[in-house]
Structures are given as structure tokens and as C-alpha cells.
Amino acid sequence: MKNLTLLIILLFFVQSCKNESQKVNKSIMQSNKFHSDKIRDSIFENVIEITDADVMYQGTNYIFNVTIPEMNETPILYVSTRVPQEILSRIYPNFQSLIVISPNWNYYDEVSKELGASVSYAEPRTSTIIYEFNREGGIIKKDSIIMMDTFPEIKFKTTTK
User: Fold this and answer.
1) pLDDT tens track of the chain, all 161 residues?
2) Alpha carbon distance 129, 137 (integer Å)
């Protein structure tokens, strides 16, 4: 029990260090293009959910089979399926701005690997990543924030599939 407590404390410390290293560059924040300083308090409305059934892949090529109508506002996606984080910035390139909410799969995998088979009943803390992508002049600018122990408030868009 003592070893498990020590391991959990160590994992919290490692995650805290990672969160510190992912802080947003102040010059980007001053441009008002990103919102990570206030995004924790946001209520995400009309969120489009992307599930396993909406994604096809072969090797490293992914196709997202959800049509997002052209709109004046920034689309918000909740990608619940496992896709590599690196490809999230390249999805739906027709939008200049895009917000993507995703479970923190890297964190869940890391905790599972650290605990191993010896602790099959433990679940990791809740962890969600909120990405904001802005595309300007062929360059993708990314901002992200990790939310621990809570989920963002999400109101999904109603669809008629």
C-alpha cells in the first residue's frame, strides 16, 4: 500500500511538471488569438462529436467522416476516438480556427503502463486536453491546456443522422 501511495504521488508530480512545460508563450497570449487563460471556464456549445464510427484509417492516414457546415464561428469538436495528437492540427483545414477537445490518451496510457498488471482495478484521474488551432499564412499555431480531475462543460450539437 505504501508503494502504491508513493507511486501515485510520483505520478502527480510528473504530471505537474508536464503541465508547467506546456504553458502558453506570453507573446502569443497577448495577440488575443488564443484563449487558454479563460478556456477552463468556458461552456462549449454546439459541439460536434467524432466517435470511432466517424473515423477510418489505414496506417498513418486518417479520414474523418463528419461533415461540418461552413459557419462564421469556430467549430468545436469532441474527438472521443483514439487518434494521434499530431494529426488533430491538420483535420478540417478549410477552417481558419478550430477547437478540439479530446481525452488525454497519452496520460491514460502512461498511468496504465506505470501501474502495470499489478493494479488492475485502478483508474487514472480524469484528464482532458483542449486544443485551439489557428491557421495563418500556411502556418498552424497551436495552443492547448490540460484539464485534470474534471471535464469541460460540453453541450453537443443535435444531429439527425
Assistant:
1) 544 443 444 444 444 444 433 333 333 333 344 555 566 667 899 999 999 999 999 998 999 999 998 877 899 999 999 998 889 999 999 999 999 999 998 888 887 777 765 655 566 788 899 999 999 988 999 988 889 888 888 999 886 55
2) 26
**What phi, psi does 155 have (nearest 5°)?**
-120, 110
Which of 128, 111, 143, 118 minimizes the C-alpha distance to 14? 111
> Which candidate, 126, 114, 145, 146, places its Cα nearest to that of 10?
114
Residue 48 CB partners (closer than 8 Å, separation 6+)? 66, 68, 75, 76, 77, 78, 156, 157, 159
Question: How many whole angstroms separate alpha carbon 154 and alpha carbon 5?
Answer: 33
State the CB neighbour count (10 A cutoff) for residue 106: 14
What SS3 state is found at 124? coil
Q: Which of 79, 107, 92, 101 has its CA nearest to residue 15? A: 107
- Amino acid identity of residue 100, one-letter, is V
Beta bridge partners of 64: 55
Residue the block writes with cell 508547467? 20
